[in-house]
Amino acid sequence: MAIRLGDTAPDFKAQTTDGEVNFHEWLGDSWGxxxxxxxxxxxxxxxELGMAAKMKPEFDKRNVKIMGLSVDPLDSHGGWAKDxxxxxxxxxxxxxxxxxxxxxxxxxxxxxxxxxxxxxxxSVYVIGPDKKVKLMIxxxxxxxxxxxxxxxxxxxxQLTAQHSVATPVNWKDGDDCIIVPSVSNEExxxxxxxxxxxxxxxxRITPQPNK
Length: 211
Ligand code: BEZ
Prior knowledge:
Elements: E1 13-16, E2 19-22, H1 23-27, E3 31-37, H2 43-54, H3 56-61, E4 64-70, H4 74-88, E5 96-98, H5 103-107, E6 122-127, E7 133-139, H6 147-162, E8 165-166, E9 177-179, H7 185-191, E10 197-200, E11 203-206
This protein binds benzoic acid (BEZ).
């Protein structure tokens, strides 16, 4: 069955480059990002894994654990990891699932047969500390992901989890936010001491609360 936002992220046990992992146990109280790669030793995936490794400190800062997946076996991942370090300048520093039986790919609906019946598409799942799915993005095999965008959405998700705000178009960390419509002006006075600009009664702009 398709996974939808708000669903509990399916749990699984899998072989990874960091040993056997029980997904929910591995997540613990952290946020998580699970992302799939069509195949080992492919050019776009090589650049993506190098960039994800380079950006791992940014995920760590946000209490987010990252895990990749490819349908090739563990020995293939081992050889590819050497290439990633050599060509991208950063060693793999997070687990990569060896999903040769496609158990996890099927569980997360990462194989889209009308695109390719063998390889996974580039799926991204962001999972909250409550193990619920907060974001899903699907890219085609030929388009490398934008990890800055994934971090941007995580910043928004973490902000809105703590404050009664939403984030407007093209928002990035530090920009003004929107007071959610369910908060009355009376409540807003308490919650947003910096005040707000009421463009319309339903469009109230306030400085980012945690800055
Ligand atoms: C790649 O990762 O480079 C790739 C994988 C499958 C199709 C096209 C590109």
